[in-house]
């Protein structure tokens, strides 16, 4: 997908996560999660700019999702150990920033892969173990209707999740 399509899919994936976090009283964590997921929603497409890296190759895989999760986990552990950052959530207790960082980094990449798997070119989730590309072939990546439609849907989902989380049904 293009940029706005990826923003949309990331918002759609974030909506239920944000809902759970806000319901648990972790509004700041929800904000950080949503902002990070949107900010880095097109991170795997950095492969357009990297020499020797094929598009939708290494950076469009579950291995890359785990790698980015690892980097985020390291940042989380650093913030915890060296800067003394402690995040607590009502009813849950202290949130381990290493584990939280891993989940945030990997979900951010997986959301991008979901945005690309609906296009005919598909995604090789299991790179480098496999060469099989998975595709739902729903729309070409450049479709204006799909890109802006997904964006609108994502904004709506996050707005609805926020309202329901704060006000209840
Ligand atoms: Zn991509």
UniProtKB/TrEMBL annotation:
The keyword Transmembrane appears for this protein: yes
Superkingdom of the source species: Archaea
InterPro entries named in the record: YdjM-like
Regions that span the bilayer: 12-40, 60-79, 91-114, 145-166
Entry keyword set: Membrane, Transmembrane, Transmembrane helix
The protein's name: Inner membrane protein
Cross-referenced Pfam families: YdjM
